[in-house]
Write a structure and sequence with these properties.
The complex is a heterodimer of chains A (109) and B (116). By secondary structure, chain A is mainly β. Chain A has no helices and eleven strands. The chains are: A mainly beta (109), B mainly beta (116). The interface between A and B is medium-sized, with 22 and 26 residues.
Chain lengths: 109, 116
């Protein structure tokens, strides 16, 4: 089983839609969690950290479920500019940052 | 956010030669740097983790004699692909952090290596 797993998609959604991604992790001792966004042929950029209590940043909401070992990202009112690959990152052990395979999102006009 | 600079952004080399990629943290001291490779339409695969002043820790399946990593200072790590082959052609990205698990990792711009 992979350490971090994501549905690769693609998720094709119309503008204005709400879309959610999940990411599961295998190491119950994982310490920190992040969502990164990667545009084609570019480096990943931090979208948001994921806190135990959940956190929201504008149209984006991240949740952590330690019992079931998954994190989620919800995007409301999707924009064309949200089209990208969303990578979840799990930090385990000696600050090892492990990436999921990424979920591709395409927002359609 | 913090800045990580990776150089070169693109390199083409002949099979059998070696290529060095540099990763610099410009405005912070990077106690830990990571090297990843990414094939088209795939995710980033962690190759190795390096802490300043110590040997890199390689992931399973990554040949340490082929991918030489040096992290001699708190602001510079290098990855040398030795005796490159066409199958080494990939996108290599470094990231750096100042070491606590709750700190985001900052990424370099990536290096697209093509071995011909």
């Amino acid at each position: 089983r992979k350490e971090v797993e994501q549905d690769p998609g693609p998720f094709n959604v119309p503008e204005g839609a709400t879309v959610a991604f999940n990411c599961t992790y295998s190491n119950s001792a994982s310490q920190s969690f992040f969502w990164y966004r990667q545009d084609c042929r570019k480096e990943p950029k931090l979208l948001m950290s994921v806190y135990s209590s959940g956190n929201e940043d504008g149209r984006f909401t991240a949740q952590l479920n330690r019992a079931s070992q998954y994190i989620s990202l919800l995007i409301r009112d999707s924009k064309l500019s949200d089209s990208a690959t969303y990578l979840c990152v799990v930090v385990s052990g000696t600050y090892k940052y492990i990436f999921g395979t990424g979920t591709r999102l395409k927002v359609l006009a | 956010g913090a800045v990580v600079s990776q150089h070169p952004s693109r390199v083409i080399c002949k099979s059998g030669t070696s290529v060095k990629i540099e990763c610099r943290s410009l405005d912070f001291q990077a106690t830990t740097m990571f090297w990843y490779r990414q094939f088209p339409k795939q995710s980033l695969m962690l190759m190795a983790t390096s802490n300043e002043g110590s040997k890199a820790t390689y992931e399973q399946g990554v040949e340490k004699d082929k991918f030489l990593i040096n992290h001699a200072s708190l602001t510079l790590s290098t990855l040398t692909v030795t005796s490159a082959h066409p199958e080494d052609s990939s996108f290599y990205i470094c990231s750096a952090t100042w070491g606590t698990a709750n700190t985001e990792a900052f990424f370099g711009q990536g290096t697209r290596l093509t071995v011909v």
